[in-house]
Amino acid sequence: MARRLMNGLALQDAMEKLEVPTRVMTAIGMNEVAEPYIRRRAMRHLEVGRVVILVAGTGNPYFTTDTAAALRAVEIGAGVMLKATKVDGVYTADPALDPTAERHDELTYSQVLQDRLGVLDSTAVSLCMENDLPIVVFNMNRPDNIRRAALGEPVGTRIHGGEART
Question: How confident is the model over 100-110, as pLDDT tens digits?
Fold first, then answer.
C-alpha cells in the first residue's frame, strides 16, 4: 500500500511540474499526504479540470488493486481504465518465461476471462465488462506512454466489449 501511495504522490509531483492541477485521494486516512476519497469530492475535482489520482485501494479487505481501480473508475464515470505495468500489453503467455509469447493489440473482456490471461483479476475484468469500461494495459516504463495512454493514443493492449482482432 505504501508503494502505491508513493507512486501516486510521484505522479502528482510530475503532473504539477507540468502545471497540471492534480489531487491524490485515498480511502485510507492519510490526511497529511492525500485527501480522503469521497466520490462527490472526486467528481468536483474532475469538473473543475483537476486530474484525480486514486491510490491505496478501497479501504476494504478482499479487493485487489485491479478491482479497486475498476470500482473507482466506474464510480467516477471514467471513459477508460488505464493499467500501467512493466510489460507493453497483454501476451498469449508470460513473455519473461516464454520467448514465443505474442502480444495482442486488442482483446474482448470475454477473451481475457475465457483464456485466463491473468493480466487483471477476473473481478476487475467482469466489473469493467458489466459497465462497458475499456481497459488499456501498457508499459509505464517507456517514455511518454502514460501521456499517450491518457490521450487515447494507441499504446499497449486495449480490452473492450466489441469484436477484437489479435
Answer: 999 999 999 99
What domains are defined for the chain?
1-56 (no CATH), 80-166 (3.40.1160.10)
Helix and strand numbers (H, E) in the chain are 6, 9
Q: CA separation (Å) from 145 to 31, 43, 107, 142, 151?
A: 30, 25, 19, 6, 10
Which ranges of 18-161 does DSSP label H, i.e. alpha helix?
Answer: 39-47, 65-75, 109-114, 122-130, 145-150
Own/partner contacts of 146-151, CB < 8 Å, gap of 24 or more, are: 146/11, 146/82, 146/84, 149/82, 149/84, 150/82
User: pTM of this prediction?
Assistant: 0.86
